[in-house]
Amino acid sequence: MSKNRHTIKQKALQLLFDWLGGAYLIATLHRIVWRVVLIGDSLPAAHSTLIANVPDWAIYALAGVLIAIAASVSGASLGLLVRGELSIGSWQRAAALHWASALLAVTFVTGWVVTNISLVDMFSGERIHAAGRIFSSLLTPHFAILPQALSAIVETVYLAFMATVLALPASLVLSFLSARNLMKDSLWKRFVYTVLRALTNFIRSIEPLVWAVIFTVWVKVGPFPGMLALMVHTISSLVKQYSEQIEDIDPGPVEAIASTGARPLQIVWFGVVPQVAIPFLSFTIYRWDINVRMATVIGLVGGGGIGTMLNQYQMLAQWHEVGTIVLVIALVVWVMDYVSARIREALV
Amino acid sequence: MKLLELRRLSKVYPNGTRALDSVTLSVDRGEFIAVIGLSGSGKSTLLRCINRLIEPTDGTILFDGSDVTHITGEQLRRYRSRIGMIFQQFNLVGRYSVLSNVLMGALGSVGTFDSIVGRYPPALRQMALRNLEIVGIADKAHVRADSLSGGQQQRVAIARALMQEPQLLLADEPVASLDPATSHSVMRYLGYINRELGMTVVCNLHFLSLVREYSTRAVALKAGVVVFDGSPAEIDQEWFRHIYGEDAVEVEIR
């Protein structure tokens, strides 16, 4: 019964896969390869494609259905290919592989078209001249703003440090509550686990840059919103790393401690914590390192520190000063990277 | 005399495996029971059902006259603290000292906060050192547990279990990861604890030679069913084939 349902589900997934693969192939072949590349139409604007060309989309979808049916009947199916159910040497497998390569090829062509790749824009005389102008300015930094740049980057490093440290307590607590192996033995524990996992996954999927924009509206522009943005992102990232580490532990000591009649908190403290303490420390230091780099980017949208300064000089097109700032950033990031790598090595 | 009684105990795992099938077994005080059987015959499940690390699906567990099949929370904790357990992989906390590991056996009787900050009563510390003397490694009290050899780690695990002053000691394949010489050393300590300290032992074992040498009674499981319950001396070739299958050949550990 359940086995039957399983195969029905697999069959449905296979048909869906083949339908999408077929429809996408026909759509890109017609729209991009035929109309844009061969005929020379310009790429239609995004909003017009959806509404004005409904009949086209219907035809692509229908073609997809036909291809899915044909694939299902003949066995030359993408769905079967990815599940590894086509025997090596069969014509069905060869056909499915050709189909997959065709998908890759049309995706490449489409990608080329939509990103407006143009060698002319990059290497014509005028463009080369522009490139020379910015590189020669960047490479001849003006050191008058060096003291200002240094104090800005110190602000960035402290900002990253605070974001990491303030994220720690919440990350530690939440990571134990988001570890599957600790949260499986009752219904409400599984509920907390599921909710927390979903929440942290959602928060992590929002870029720190977006958080920075949100916080610059919430509190005022400056290092504080930048720190808050990094802190939120750090919590969601550390919870993921920490909880995966907890799920990876040897369950033996946990079982042994539980068998002595220890209380739940003692079981975690003696059975789990010693196994994860060093990896946790290593992740945390690495996160600070990452935060220094991210703080620079966040500064671009008003999150304070060296990023904000970079943004100001870039707006004024003062490329010599921008060069100085980039140099300072590169130096500090390199030092942080080196130091954090050495500390983490020493820990393991 | 009766310490533990299992009545028609069954365990069916969520995937449908019937690990224990209506096991009825009674354990008298002072016995050294060896549980034998092929891998997957339900030996580990049996031991873990006794101290409720695994929940039995059906049946009754009576310990010291009281029904412990469904107790929870504080009651379950107190019940577990009366039963020591040692494991095939020793399950020590490798980064902690030997003494700290032994003290972990007393967690059930120390407050959560006190144990976390390492505030154990002096009497418990002395007891931990005494227990390390019993298993012959008092000199290793302050080294890291993971720096010891396998046999020494298993002895630390025994000392940890002794901290509970248990009425019953469960041993899950205690020598399966050890070489023959070390196996005998560990088994001798278990034998000593059984005879001299009067502790009841239920021990899963692979090697019949060890069963014959150390246990007072053997219980054989086959696909979750008790197929033999009697003196180890009674296990002859015919029984051996019945327990381990027609093709099995006995290997001795000397």
Description:
The complex is a heterodimer of chains A (348) and B (254). Helix content of chain A is 82%, strand content 0%. With 348 residues, chain A is mainly α. Chain A folds into two domains: 116 residues, no CATH class; 210 residues, Orthogonal Bundle (MetI-like fold), CATH 1.10.3720. Chain B is an alpha/beta fold. Chain B has two domains: 171 residues, P-loop containing nucleotide triphosphate hydrolases (Rossmann fold, 3-Layer(aba) Sandwich), CATH 3.40.50.300; 74 residues, no CATH class. In chain B, the strands form two sheets. A six-stranded mixed beta sheet of chain B has the order 6-7-8-3-9-10, with helices on both faces. In chain B, strands 2-1-4-5 form a four-stranded antiparallel beta sheet, covered by helices on one side. In chain B, a hairpin with a 5-residue loop joins strand 1 and strand 2. Chain B is globular, with a radius of gyration of 18 Å. Chain B starts with a strand and ends in a 10-residue tail after the last helix. The model of chain B has no long low-confidence stretch (mean pLDDT 92). At the A-B interface, helix 12 and helix 13 of A face helix 2, strand 6, helix 4 and helix 6 of B.
Short note summarizing the structure:
The complex is a heterodimer of chains A (348) and B (254). With 348 residues, chain A is mostly helical.
Q: Roughly what percent helix of chain A?
A: over 70%
Q: Biggest sheet of chain B, strands in spatial order?
A: 6-7-8-3-9-10
Strand residue content of chain A:
under 5%
Number of domains of chain B: 2
Q: And the CATH topology of the largest domain in chain A?
A: MetI-like fold
Secondary structure topology:
The complex is a heterodimer of chains A (348) and B (254).
Chain A: H1 2-39, H2 46-52, H3 54-74, H4 78-82, H5 91-114, H6 119-123, H7 125-138, H8 146-177, H9 187-205, H10 208-218, H11 223-247, H12 251-259, H13 264-299, H14 305-315, H15 319-347
Chain B: E1 2-12, E2 18-28, E3 32-36, H1 43-50, E4 58-63, E5 66-67, H2 73-81, E6 83-86, H3 98-103, H4 112-116, H5 122-134, H6 150-162, E7 168-171, H7 180-196, E8 200-204, H8 208-214, E9 217-222, E10 225-230, H9 237-244
Parallel strand pairs in B: 3-8, 3-9, 6-7, 7-8
Antiparallel strand pairs in B: 1-2, 1-4, 4-5, 9-10
